[in-house]
Amino acid sequence: TDYSGGSDYHPTPIRGGYPGGLVQGDAISTMLTGNFLREAPPGFSAAVILLLTCLTVAFAPRLSTSRLAFWGTLTFFASLFLGVLLFREALLIIDLAPILVFESLATAAIVTVQSFREHREHVDLLWTLQVLEKRALEMNEARAPQPVNEIGKPGGSVGGHGGAARMVDAC
Questions:
Q1: For the whole prediction, is pTM greater than 0.85?
Q2: How far is it, in rounded angstroms, from Cα 151 to Cα 36?
């Protein structure tokens, strides 16, 4: 039957507009074959969340902030893909909302903490470098030879008057 010009279209969970005759045919086929949609077991979402949490916690210390954000995005879309795949292939309905919300919030929290740690490490390194530079300058100043004046005493001027004393001596 050709439904291209007809107006007997109905929205379904899979498609926006599905021909009404095919909706009836799919319903009869499902009843005759016994391929009904099933819901995932009650602990399935919790098990997926636990698995993703364990993987994220295992990898988080080894990853930079940008790679950790990529990991969160990857696990988000992998969870979504898994849900669609199980629906299409095994006719299994999975409540993806808790998994996706948890994964999004957990990734955001972990990326924030990791970013704070990296920033703190940079600040600590900069402070350490400043302290080391200051100490190196102090050590160089302590080792530097003092200028000697014409009389042989340390200091750059005769009698402590700077260049004015030299001018008087020259006249």
A1: no
A2: 109
